[in-house]
Task: structure prediction
Amino acid sequence: MAYKCGSREQITLFPQSIDEYIGEEHPVRAYDTFIEVLNPYEIDLEIDPHKVGNSAYEPKAMLKLVVYGYSYGIKSSRKLERAVHENVAFIWLMGGLKPDHKTIAEFRKNNKKALKLVLRQCARMCMKLGMVDGNILFVDGTKIRANASRGKNYTKEQYEGKLKDIDIRIEKLLEECDRIDEEEKGDGSLVKIEEELIDQRNLRERIKGILAEFETKGDLTKDGVQRTVNQTDPDSALMRSIHGSHSSYNAQSVVDDKNGLIIHADAVSETKDINQLSEQVQQAEEAMEKSCEVVCADAGYSNTKELENLDGKDIKVVVPSQRQALHQPEKPFSKSQFTYNAGENCYYCPEGHSLIYSTQDTRGEQLVYRIKDANLCRQCKNFGICTNARQGRKIKRLIREELKEKIERQFNEPESQEIYVRRKTRAEHPFGHIKHNLGIRNFLLRGRDGAKAEISIGATCFNIARMITLLGGVLEFCFKVQSHAGLITL
Result:
């Protein structure tokens, strides 16, 4: 059987333009068009046409390189440098520009805000194109590792010990410098010592900043556990996942129901989602420049204070309580079988005995009601089933109990159940794409701003890929985006 064989010596006539190598439906054209229509000043992209010295690379071209690189899972500045030399799509995108890895890394580090704002402009573009209506929003979170070692998490006492060690080391280095000066050695040892001295002083300042944070936030977490801060990335936190505990960020996303496009993305240091709902929705509404009607999230966001903030804005909340999420059957003599009398501010048990207000819990979030006469409980036929306490039965009532009951009733409505069923395909699908297809399982940039920039890039890449599919291809995407560019308020 004959085989097809190649020949490196074959003379061919290459196309006159590199543009001829890139087909009309190549995805790189979509990314090029999208970034091109953005106003660089509105996204705080660093542009200085009057800068003296060697010419810098055009900022929009660098932005295209970073965003398009993430769309193919290429995050490393060294791999991006290689791509602009070897990959035809990257060569076309950059117009032949070939920045080195240091330039790429520096651009990404200095333009974190621009990278975050690109997602906001993408959301507004989707609004103008009618691909987002902003009426029903889904909120979800996932943990993504920080660029920091788990072993670098220390307590306040450990940092104080490190600070003492650094001061001792600096003192020894200064003594060594004086000794070398007296001996007038010229072997370069003084240069090395001075470099280490600079490093130690920088480390001392960083640790002082971390200790100042301990003074502000305290030594213990809200759960009473001794707090630790990572030396490499102080903004990150030790978070537990199915892969163990690692220094991570809690990435958040707000997704529109109509086409599953991401409106807003964020990265926070809190390990749990419980305090995130109202803040993330507010940020999404600012991006859309309109208010939503319904917000849906899982039970991890069930916090009456957060839900109250949304309910006060006439936003319907579809969030299950922990009991509803776990589908737990009601136990005999549960609180729901006790009748609350608002006028008398007391509960009546199934046997008709009253439980009166007793005290408030230490956090000031719940009211405690107790049976007035403990003998009534001990003599009751249900003693041992209803309660075993010698002091009699007690019930805890949230200060916002009426709101909790309202949210639970809302969740059980047929319309709410239909919305909640869509949550997995809407809220969880984008994170699956970002982590598995784009490879953003860990951040490269350090600090919360860096993490927010990277998750925003990932969300933008997800949106563009989804828009290409919804609009029927790259050519139609480019036409629609260019046609509506003048209508987008940036």
